[in-house]
Amino acid sequence: MKLSEKIVESRKANGMTQEELASKCNVSRQSISKWEADIALPETEKLLLLGELFHVSMDVLSKMEK
To answer: What pTM, to 2 d.p., does this model score?
Structure first.
């Protein structure tokens, strides 16, 4: 599973909209949309924050699964 898919899955599992996640990450909704569409990658600082918000480690977020 790609990072983009993990972000979508985790966001939905936590009952968040793109707007809510964007607010928590201090980025635009368009940034979240780009992360989820695999057009752009979050900065390391934002990846750490995503891990905290979703209660998962960086390994879980960044590791590519088959």
So the answer is: 0.90
Cα gap 27→44, rounded to integer Å: 14
Dihedral sign, Cα of residue 24, residue 30, residue 33, residue 37: negative
Contacts of 14-22 spanning 24+ positions with Cβ under 8 A: 14/53, 14/54, 21/53
How far does CA 24 lie from the centroid of its chain? 11
45: Cα separation from own chain's centroid: 12
Instruction: Please give the full DSSP string across 1-38, using - where no structure is assigned.
Output: --HHHHHHHHHHHTT--HHHHHHHHTS-HHHHHHHHTT
Per-residue pLDDT of 1-11, as tens digits, reads 899 999 999 99
